[in-house]
Write a structure and sequence with these properties.
Distance between the termini: 95 Å
Largest sheet: 6 strands, antiparallel, barrel
CATH architecture of the largest domain: 2-Layer Sandwich
Number of strands: 20
Structural class: alpha+beta
Helix content: 25-40%
Strand order of the largest sheet: 6-15-19-17-16-20
Number of domains: 4
CATH class of the largest domain: Alpha Beta
Radius of gyration: 49 Å
C-alpha cells in the first residue's frame, strides 16, 4: 500500500527534475544532449536520437558528444525523420522494422532496404516523440529498446515532450531569434568600430630591401691599357701597402714592338749619318737631311711610347688597404679593356651600407632616416644605421630588376661588420595611419590599372 505511492512520487519527482533541467539548459545543444541522455531517468531505453526540424538535421545521439555527419546510421536516421515527420508527426510506438515503411510502400525495394537497415541497427521496439509548442513542430525524439513501451511510459514521454518543446521554442523562437540578431548586429557594429579605430592608429612606414656592406670611398684599380692579365699578385681581401704590386699584364707583344721600334730607330740614325757625310759633296743628299731627321725623331718617339706602355703593365697599389675582388682565377688570363675595373682598394674600417630598394617599395625618406640592418649570418640582432644619400632614379640590378641605390652610415663600430657581408635592411619613413600603410600597394595597383 505504501510502495505504489512511493513509486508514483519518485516518477513524478523525476519528471519534474527533467523538466527543470530542460528549462535551465543554456542552449539548444545542451538541451539536445539532455534529451537523449537524461530522459533515461524517467523512461529506460538503449538508444535515443534527437532531430531538429528547424535545421532539418540530426543534432544529438545518446552516448555521443556530437553525431558523425558521414556515418551511414546518421544519414539513414536523418532521412527517416525527414520523411516521417511530415506525415505522422504524433507520439507513436513502432517497431524498428516498421520504420522502413517511411521509405515507400510495403514490399518495395526501398522499404525492404530500410527495414533491414533499422532491424540491424536498432532494438525491436521504438517510440517516436514529436516535440511541439503551440502546434508548431520543434523536432522529434526517437527512443528504442528491446522491451515494448508501457502506457504509463508513453504518458510520461508525452509530458516530457511538452516540456522539451516549450524549452526548444524558448531557445529558437522569434523572440530569441530577434535577440540573437540584435546581439549579432551589436557585435558587428562593435567589431566595425574597433576595426576603424585600429585602422586609424598612427604607425611608422617601413620597407624591407636587400643590403650589402661596401667600402666607403674605395680606390679603383683599373686596367692601364688593353691587354691580357698575366699575374695577379694578391689574394682576395689581402692587406696591401702603398707601392705593392697588384697585377701584371702580358708584355710580350709590347716587348716585340719595342724591339722593332729600336731596330727601326737604329736604321734611321744610320741613314741620317750617311746622308750627312754625302751632303758635303752631293746637293741632293743635303736636301734629304730634313726627311731623315724627321723619320729618326718619329722612331725615337715610338720607342719612348712603347717603353712607357711597358712600364705601365705592372700595376701597383696607390695606397694602403685591402684588395677587394672575387677570385684570382677569374682574372688571370682574361683580356681586359683600357680602364676596365679589376679590383678595389679599401680601408677595412671605412665601410658603409648599400641598399637596393625596389621601385615598388619606394616611399618618402628624409636624410638621416633610421635603418635597422639584419645580417644573414646573425639575423636575430639588428645593427643601427642612418640614411646618408639616396639615388634620384632607379637603375638596373644584376638580377634584371630596377631599384634605387641608397647609402647609409653605421651608427657605431661593430665587430660583425665586414665588407662583402649581405643582409636585409628595414628603412623607416614618415608616420601614417595603419589603413594607408596596409593598402599602399593595392591603391598603387588600382591607380595604375584604372589610370586615375
Amino acid at each position: 500500500m505504501s510502495d505504489q505511492p512511493t513509486r508514483k512520487g519518485v516518477a513524478l519527482a523525476t519528471l519534474l527534475e527533467l523538466e527543470k533541467r530542460a528549462r535551465a539548459a543554456e542552449d539548444a545543444l545542451a538541451l539536445g544532449f539532455l534529451m537523449v541522455n537524461d530522459t533515461h531517468l524517467a523512461v529506460p531505453y538503449r538508444q535515443a536520437a534527437y532531430f531538429c526540424s528547424r535545421s532539418d538535421r540530426l543534432r544529438s545521439l545518446s552516448g555521443l558528444a556530437t553525431p558523425d555527419r558521414d556515418a551511414p546510421f546518421t544519414r539513414k536516421l536523418e532521412a527517416y525523420f525527414r520523411k516521417n515527420l511530415g506525415t505522422q508527426a504524433r507520439l507513436q510506438s513502432l517497431g524498428a522494422a516498421r520504420m522502413g515503411l517511411a521509405f515507400g510502400p510495403e514490399g518495395s525495394a526501398a522499404e525492404r532496404e530500410a527495414r533491414a537497415f533499422f532491424t540491424d541497427h536498432l532494438p525491436a521496439n521504438a517510440v517516436l516523440v514529436p516535440l511541439r509548442h503551440k502546434d508548431q513542430l520543434q523536432g522529434a525524439l526517437l527512443l528504442a529498446r528491446e522491451e515494448a513501451f508501457t502506457r504509463s511510459e508513453i504518458n510520461a514521454l508525452g509530458h516530457l515532450a511538452d516540456a522539451y518543446g516549450h524549452a526548444l521554442a524558448a531557445m529558437t523562437g522569434p523572440k530569441r531569434r530577434r535577440q540573437g540578431r540584435q546581439r549579432k548586429r551589436i557585435m558587428l557594429l562593435a567589431g566595425i568600430a574597433v576595426l576603424i579605430a585600429v585602422m586609424a592608429l598612427p604607425v611608422r612606414q617601413s620597407v624591407l630591401a636587400p643590403a650589402e656592406i661596401v667600402a666607403q670611398d674605395p680606390g679603383l684599380v683599373r686596367a692601364p691599357l688593353a691587354g691580357v692579365i698575366e699575374t695577379v699578385h694578391v689574394r682576395p681581401n689581402e692587406p696591401v701597402s702603398a707601392g705593392a704590386p697588384l697585377v701584371s699584364l702580358d708584355g710580350s707583344e709590347l716587348t716585340t714592338q719595342r724591339e722593332i721600334a729600336r731596330q727601326q730607330l737604329s736604321v734611321a740614325e744610320a741613314e741620317l749619318r750617311q746622308a750627312r757625310q754625302q751632303a758635303l759633296f752631293d746637293p741632293q743628299s743635303r736636301a734629304r737631311l730634313a726627311v731623315l731627321e724627321g723619320r729618326r725623331d718619329q722612331h725615337a718617339a715610338e720607342l719612348a711610347f712603347l717603353g712607357e706602355r711597358l712600364a705601365r703593365i705592372h700595376v701597383t697599389a696607390a695606397r694602403d688597404g685591402i684588395a677587394i675582388f672575387d677570385d684570382v682565377a677569374d682574372w688571370e688570363g682574361r683580356p681586359v679593356a683600357l680602364g676596365e675595373r679589376i679590383m678595389l682598394l679599401a680601408d677595412p674600417q671605412a665601410r658603409e651600407l648599400e641598399i637596393r630598394l625596389g621601385i615598388g617599395d619606394a616611399i618618402t625618406f628624409e636624410p638621416g632616416a633610421e635603418i635597422r640592418f639584419f645580417l644573414n649570418i646573425d639575423p636575430a640582432d639588428s645593427i643601427a644605421a642612418s640614411l646618408t644619400r639616396a639615388g634620384y632614379r632607379a637603375g638596373p640590378m644584376p638580377d634584371g630588376s630596377m631599384a634605387y641605390r641608397l647609402r647609409a652610415q653605421f651608427a657605431a663600430d661593430d665587430p660583425r661588420l665586414r665588407i662583402g657581408l649581405r643582409g636585409t635592411a628595414r628603412i623607416y619613413g614618415e608616420r601614417t595611419i595603419l589603413m594607408l600603410y596596409l593598402l599602399r600597394r593595392p591603391i598603387a595597383w588600382l591607380r595604375l590599372w584604372s589610370g586615375l
